[in-house]
Amino acid sequence: MKILEPLKIAFLGFLLVFAFSSCDKIEGEGPFFETGSGGNGVDTSTGAVRKVMIEDFTGHTCGNCPRAAETATSLKQIYGEQLVVVAVHMGFFATPKSNTDSSYSSDYRTIMGSELDASFNIDATGLPRGMVNRTEVSGNVLLAHAGWGAATQALIDLAPDMKISISNTYENSTRTVTTEVTSTFENNLSGTYNLVVILTEDSIVDWQKDYNLPSGQQDIESYVHRHVLRQPFNGTWGDEIASGSASAGTASTNAYNMVFPAGWDEDHCSVVAYVYETTSNEVVQVEEAHVK
Prior knowledge:
Number of strands: 15
Strand content: 25-35%
CATH architecture: Sandwich
CATH topology: Immunoglobulin-like
Order of helices and strands: HEHEHHEHEEEEEEEEEEEE
Shape: globular
Oligomer: single chain
């Protein structure tokens, strides 16, 4: 593992100040709005590199969840394309409301989010929470956002075990995306490996509660929701691509398609593909590509 650059050291140290165990009211700074992405990660244009996935479990009435989104955005600015963020709206704080002003009426929950909750007991642990490649840190797979930076840094410099490539085609007339995902093992690995392919949408402007704002101003109508899980192409647990063992150089190609419902903005959507080992649930590689 390489020595942390000064920017990474400063940021990871800053994160240690913020460790929240549940969605309780806290004091702090203002709301999060879109600031863009990119950063100073390594060049990912040639060869295989290790990429890391953060699953940010969230909800629009979780007043502490904007802090987790800010953490994810800051890490994305550091690591660039080596980091893939997926915001999974699930549980109590994602339940739509029937308020007279239509606030919090949108439903960003998914069957996949509910099944992940049932498997990892996320909602009962308290939001915000996240998983970094679904790896354990000090015996816990569900991490407060203050721990995401250190967990990411511990993984991101490791040599890659796989390479994933994604090729997308979008048909405007039918609002259909077709994606072809090729997964190639870089090393000999033992275990059973599944490929999961999902669709995310970025820059959704909608309501969000933020406890960092003064009383009476905590309901943000124009909050920018990032990297929102919309739907999987092949279910929560995906398709098996290797069983028992896999040799270096072994490759498989899987193709899927999805018709976009009304309201989804194809210009802000991406396909995310990841491979995980089914016994440990650990993600060994992840990739992301814009639909258009």
